[in-house]
Amino acid sequence: MITDEILAKYEMTIGVECHVQLATKTKLFSGVDNDARDKEPNSVVSPIDYALPGMLPVLNRRAVDLAIKAGKALGSKVANISRFDRKHYFYPDLPKGYQTTQMYQPIILSGTVEVPLEDGSTTNVRIHHAHLEEDAGKLSHHGDYSLVDLNRAGTPLIEIVSEPDMHSATEAKAYAAELYRLMTFAGVTYGDLYHGNMRFDVNVSVALKGADKLGIRTETKNLNSFRSVERAVEYEFRRQVELVEKGERIIQETRGWDEAKQKTTSQRSKENAQDYRYMPDADIPPIILSDQEIAEIQADMPKLPGEWRNILSSLDLSYQAVETLLDAENEFRGKIEFLNTIKSIIDDGDYEKAKFIANWQINILIPMLRDEAFVFGKVNHLELEATIYELVKSEKLSSTNAKQLFKDLISADSLPNIEKFAEDKGYIQVSDEGAMVAIIDEVLNDPISVKAVADFKSGNEKVIGFLVGQVMKKSGGKANPGLAQKLLKERM
Amino acid sequence: MTIKEVLQQIKVSSARSVVEKALADAKEVADYNALLSLTEERALARADEVDKGKITGRLAGVPYVIKDNFLAFGGPSTAASHMLEFFDTPLQATSVEKLEAEGAICIGKANLDAFAHGGSTENSAFGPTKNAYDKSCVAGGSSGGSAVITALGVVPFALGSDTGGSIRQPASYNGVVGVKPTYGTVSRYGVVAMASSTDTIGPITSNVEDAELLMSIMSGLDKRDMTTLPDFFEILPDAMPSQKIGLVKDFMSEHVDSEVRARVNEYIEKLKAAGHTIEEVSLPMAEYALAMYYIIVPAELSSNLARYDGIRYGHQAEGAKTLAELYGRTRGQGFEAENKRRIMIGSYVLSSGFFDAYYLQAQKARTLLIHEFNKLFEQYDCLIGPVAPSTAFKLGENVADPIKMYLEDIMTVPASLAGLPSISVPAGKSSAGMPVGVQIIGPMKSDASLLALARSMESK
Q1: From the list B196, B302, B352, which residue is nearest A283 (CB)?
Q2: What are the mean pLDDT values of chain B's consecutive 10-residue runs (460 residues total)?
Q3: Is B166 tagged catalytic?
Q4: CB B88 within 8 Å of CB B71
């Protein structure tokens, strides 16, 4: 049994390779639809993807543009000259008998990604390089025969290769999640994880803490969620420490992740590794990019997560709150904008309102959006929120009633006079001191309050809650509880 | 037979009668094994369209032949291999489409060394093609069928491909004109790839004028081939006068047949008489060109032939129980011995640990060769020399000795490696009556100038 004390003697080193499917309309080297989801097998395949004799690749310029954007998101330099190479192996899902990739001169060179961690700190992960390449097709096995679907063959990917800079499962997961945010915010990918738009391979090795040499690493391939990245790394750490403790050798190998059993399994060892016979692809001229071209494409990019975190930092929100906003921005992209809304209020200098609206999105709107049962009307949620903010700020609306008012109106198709609507609904709280004093005196003179008043006067301030409750009751819930408390104390 | 003559015949008779005659002539010379299939039905249908005026153009009704490594309708596109023996293409090569847009009519598919691997057409899976001047001699290759059928006068022209001499050498062996254009002049789209960095497409014709016309039709940018160049080919009215021409002395050593050297020298005398200056020049890197070629080209073709795996189209072996067995048997049965030899060489030079020593080294040497050419072209308008060391050799003579066969390419591969235009034009015959060709090599994009020079010499 491996105890926590034993695990604590070891340190793991993790490097991550990530395949990102690019959000292009067509494939990397042919003009057919790049979206293979839910399509009939072999229905989006061109003669080029099918590798008919005499077919030649035609590079999709959009894929190059997206790689340039990915370069910026990864804090990396984009190469002025990059080239394509061929990686050879025989497999039925690889029509040409080679994958077109970038082995020798990749389009994205080294850089650094700053990864925020849950405890509010950050860790830096260096990018070794990232390159453009095409995806292969898909095989399905049916007893004594297998079928090939080439819909996905030729789909453009970038593979992002990190340096081995991570040392915990938490860091690996946070890095994977940050790559996802970077690539989606940069518009590089649609980020549909369910359909494998981003897939992670983790390289893990263990060594005694302070050792000057890294251990033998294994590569666990094709993880398609941040959670499975975390679990696979944890599993490998434990497994490898166990082997080392038993005095056994760790084999350099490729492993797979069994989601059902939550464990990694051996797939192929290095002794059986293929010789890919890499060579330059003479059918595709080099990609030549001037600094100016790169700068122009990168200037035309939406804000990245790091920039948003800087902007939001003025609101003093929690780590979790900020990440919720960033993730929701992705989740509802094209439907609703959270970040720009908040930013424009910050730009107006109204930090209090900005923080209110931000928290409103996080606590009220986003959970409602995620609740499929909830039906939204055509009203402008921002206009409604702005009015609610004013009512809450002027203490006319309690936070409970504010939520209720929002629910009432967000499903409407047009907005009435909001304050009048709230008044009619009885949501507006009484903050008029004259009217309040009358209610308070009534409560204080009520026999039910006698004991509480006496307790209060003898120093038990807690009972004020009971008295406030009575005021609320008498006012039909319209009293401003803060004001009621203040006046109660004064009158006693 | 020239294009002009054929157009005249069509005018006085009909496209149908001209195409019928070409088909009949082709059948008559079937014993040369120059053609693998006749595209009779489609050819006659197109001829009728020409006669009805539905198909027009500069080549309306002119019959021609396509080397069978081009994707073209009317019959299987076999690359003279069992691998593609029954392959019916769903689309045509750009060059074929361009010729058809001008009304040309393909009457058949020409024999070649399987997948264009070879210099004699003896590597065809369907038997060798015989020389137009002596049936006991080779046609040359790999565009042997295209050269022979043109030389026999069945059609005025044929399409060929040239990776290391495959148009020029058979043109030379059969006394016809062959053009290997500047790399990227004619689209490679739809031509079974051999070596991506040296494959070129060109015509084989009975005179230079026809070659010029065909080049002007076929050249130009193709959005389906990223290596094509914007159209630069323009037929020149006259050859540039008083050219300075370098005779490559490395190509005129005693290893070259004396009769070949004699014909080249006679051609040079005619050039001098026409006012051009000839000087001997040296191309020291040429000695290594063959070594570079037989590393780079097999490397590239081993990659380009990886797609023939029996999964999607082409030959598929029967009875395989595992995937490895399916690949092994399919490729074992579908490829010829020379294909396998070259795939093995290519796979070897690309394998881990050898790539730097062979492939990269060869590419560096290739750059030096290109520099040498460039230096010469600072001083000379073009270079001249023989096409091949000898006239067509006997069938079977070199089959057992691949190295000797590779030596046939020694004068044609330098221009291929450097991407330069190079043409092969007839320069008389040997005492045995076998044709000898002269090769003219120019700087990049000088194709039209080389052809204008050759045209000016034709009547002399």
Answers
A1: B196
A2: 97 98 98 98 98 98 98 98 98 98 98 97 98 98 97 98 98 98 98 98 98 98 98 97 97 94 98 98 95 97 98 96 96 98 97 94 98 98 97 92 81 98 98 98 98 94
A3: yes
A4: no
HSE-up (13 A, CA, CB side) for residue A385 = 20
Total Cβ atoms within 10 A of residue A319: 14
pTM over 0.80: yes
* B67 labelled catalytic: yes
Given an 8 Å threshold on Cβ–Cβ distance, is A285 in contact with B227? yes
d(CA A491, CA A261): 67
Mutate to test the interface with A, among B196, B315, B361 (most CBs of A within 10 A): B196
A79 — pLDDT class (breaks 50, 70, 90): very high
Map residue B263 onto helix, strand or coil. helix
Instruction: For residue A162, give both structure tokens.
Output: 């990190």
Residue B286, chain A, CB below 8 Å: the answer is: no
CA distance B450 to B82: 38
CATH number 1.10.10.410 given to A433-491: yes
Domains of chain B in start order, with CATH, are: 3-218 (3.90.1300.10)
**Domain ranges for chain A:** 4-291, 303-374, 433-491
**Residues of A in Cβ contact (< 8 Å) with B227:** 56, 282-283, 285
Q: B306 vs A47: CB contact, 8 Å cut-off?
A: no
Using the Cβ of B300 and the Cβ atoms of chain A, whether some distance falls under 8 Å is answered with: yes
* Contact list, A277 vs chain B (CB under 8 Å): 302-303, 347, 350-352, 355
CA distance A324 to chain B (A): 45
Q: What is the DSSP string of B36-102?
A: EEE-HHHHHHHHHHHHTTSS-STTTT-EEEEETTB--TTS---TTSSTTTT---SS--HHHHHHHHT
